[in-house]
């Protein structure tokens, strides 16, 4: 499994993970409070400036990470064009892009261990009443780790498909094998966890 951190060192890497997550929550709430198209354009411009600040290499990596959102944005835009609510759809699409870009910025500049430390701190009250928060922490870390892994496997499957059918896009045709690979990986991870004692608190030490 690989990290989603950017190798380009930025000033955001030195900010505490808790501060970045708190700012992400505040900015996300702010985006939903802005209902005007002009306000959303300004917000997206500010987000773009944050990506441009560390340099072109960092900005390109951030833009590449947002490609999967383009499909959802296109579907939302198409729906609002069809229903005659273009202005409302534009606000939603811009809000979606800004929110996901900000979350991606935090992911690119924060080590997974630091984010899990924040989560461990936030769930302390649950442990005080006897609940085991280890499964929650592990599940979140695995989801974050698996996103780039599955993305790479999906790209490899699409490349293999294009090698056999150069005139056709892979699209939905790789959905079934990709789901099979994901289930296979999940099975291997489950076996590895069982081999290390499962999710008991003692297994963490």
Summarize the structure.
This protein is mostly helical.
Could you walk me through the main structural features you see in this protein, from its secondary elements to its overall organization?
This protein has 205 residues and is mostly helical. Helix content is 76%, strand content 0%. The protein has ten helices and no strands. Helix 2 runs parallel beside helix 5 (86-109). The model has no long low-confidence stretch (mean pLDDT 84).
Low-confidence runs: none
Q: What structural category do the secondary elements indicate?
A: mainly alpha
Assembly context of the chains? single chain
- Please report the number of helical segments: 10
Q: Distance N terminus to C terminus?
A: 21 Å
- Helical fraction equals over 70%
Number of strand elements: 0
Mean pLDDT across residues: 84
**Rg calc:** 20 Å
Strand content: under 5%
* Form type: globular
H-E order:
HHHHHHHHHH
Major sheet size, sense and barrel closure: none
Supply database-style keywords.
single chain; 205 residues; mainly alpha; 0% strand; globular
